[in-house]
């Protein structure tokens, strides 16, 4: 039994016809990752919107929640977690602070440093959105049996590590 074809198969067939001298096989992986990224983005956007959030806000709230009590991180640690610039993290923090989901205060240990803290409202918002988010992710992956999901996760991890996407110290 052959696997059903997708839009990327058509693209690869067209390139094979038009440029048989080129190995276009990388498009098979990257093209599918790109299409999946769009599907994930749309599904997550819909899920987060039901909770009055967007993906960047969810990322910040989740990073603070994962930090454990007292749910605090520095803006620099949040930048490293989100892999964004200081300007981008500042905009995210401004929006979340306006909504009352985080606070920013001076560090007691170092008065020059700022500490971002998840408020009780922020924790409640994240805790309400998280189960829905996980269900969205499960739905996106339901076509793959567990062993295939594990294998895919391993392959993607290996690729990301090879590209230098490894954890940084906060």
Automatic annotation (TrEMBL):
GO molecular function, one term: DNA-binding transcription factor activity
SMART domains xrefs: HTH_MARR
Keyword annotations of the record: DNA-binding, Transcription, Transcription regulation
Domain HTH marR-type per the UniProt entry, residue ranges: 26-161
Keyword Ribosomal protein: no
InterPro entries membership: HTH_MarR-typ, WH-like_DNA-bd_sf, WH_DNA-bd_sf
Keyword Transcription regulation belongs to the record: yes
SUPFAM superfamilies linked: Winged helix' DNA-binding domain (SSF46785)
Protein name: MarR family transcriptional regulator
A Pfam family it matches: MarR_2
Top-rank taxon: Bacteria
């Amino acid at each position: 039994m052959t696997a059903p074809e997708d839009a990327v198969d058509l693209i690869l067939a067209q390139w094979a016809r038009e440029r048989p001298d080129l190995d276009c096989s990388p498009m098979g992986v990257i093209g599918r990752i790109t299409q999946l990224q769009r599907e994930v983005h749309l599904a997550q956007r819909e899920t987060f919107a039901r909770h009055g959030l967007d993906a960047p806000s969810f990322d910040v709230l989740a990073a603070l929640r994962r930090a454990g009590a007292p749910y605090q991180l520095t803006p620099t640690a949040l930048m490293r977690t989100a892999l964004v610039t200081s300007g981008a993290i500042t905009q995210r923090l401004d929006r979340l602070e306006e909504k009352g989901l985080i606070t920013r205060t001076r560090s007691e240990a170092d008065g020059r440093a700022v500490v971002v803290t998840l408020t009780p409202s922020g924790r409640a918002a994240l805790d309400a959105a998280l189960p829905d988010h996980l269900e969205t992710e499960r739905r996106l992956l339901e076509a793959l049996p567990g062993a295939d999901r594990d294998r895919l996760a391993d392959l993607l991890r290996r690729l990301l590590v090879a590209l230098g996407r490894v954890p940084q110290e906060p």
